[in-house]
Design goal:
By secondary structure, this protein is mostly helical. The chain has one domain (about 15-145). The chain contains 5 helices and 4 strands, in the order E-E-E-H-H-H-E-H-H. It has helices spanning about 30-55, 65-90, 90-100, 110-130, 130-145, and strands at about 5-10, 10, 20, 110. A hairpin with a 2-residue loop joins strand 1 and strand 2. Helix 2 packs across helix 4 (about 110-130). The longest helix has 30 residues, at about 30-55.
């Protein structure tokens, strides 16, 4: 059995008793590994999927729309990754904050699958939240363009 690194996803697994990840079902460990592998596979396949979507959409775009599409896509990817990185880096403090609401006399015991779900939700939420500037610029461009009938 391989030891967990000292700092795994912002979670100190080697701290004294109260901070540990547990499974409560015989299948939970395998199911969690399969879920993480599936999500990882989707993330690794995303460039190919997005390329195929791009190749499908490009023929319908005008030259001006194509010119805007590349910066929007590049900035969207960059901002999503930046938001995900921020979520990952602040995960330890976020968990400490959430645990502190329980009270000082309540111990924390985490299930592996629920912990991984929290990490995924935080990364997705921060990544989507960082898309707000791209949405604002898009809405400004759409609102400022003259409509032709």
């Amino acid at each position: 059995m391989q030891a967990t690194p000292a700092d795994f996803c912002g979670f100190d697994a080697n701290a004294s008793g109260s901070k540990s990840l547990y499974i409560f079902d015989p299948i939970d460990g395998l199911a969690t590994r399969l879920r993480v592998a599936s999500y990882g596979g989707l993330i690794l396949a995303m460039p190919v999927v997005l390329w195929q979507v791009w190749r499908f959409i490009v023929p319908a775009l005008h030259a001006k729309e194509r010119r805007y599409a590349v910066p929007f896509i590049a900035s969207s990817i960059f901002l999503f990754l930046l938001g995900g990185l921020l979520a990952y880096l602040t995960l330890g403090k976020a968990i400490e904050f959430l645990i502190s609401w329980s009270g000082s006399d309540v111990g924390a015991l985490f299930q592996v699958s629920k912990y991984i779900r929290l990490v995924g939700l935080m990364v997705a939420a921060f990544g989507i939240g960082f898309q707000f500037p791209v949405l604002l610029v898009f809405l400004m461009l759409v609102g400022s363009s003259p409509r032709s009938s």
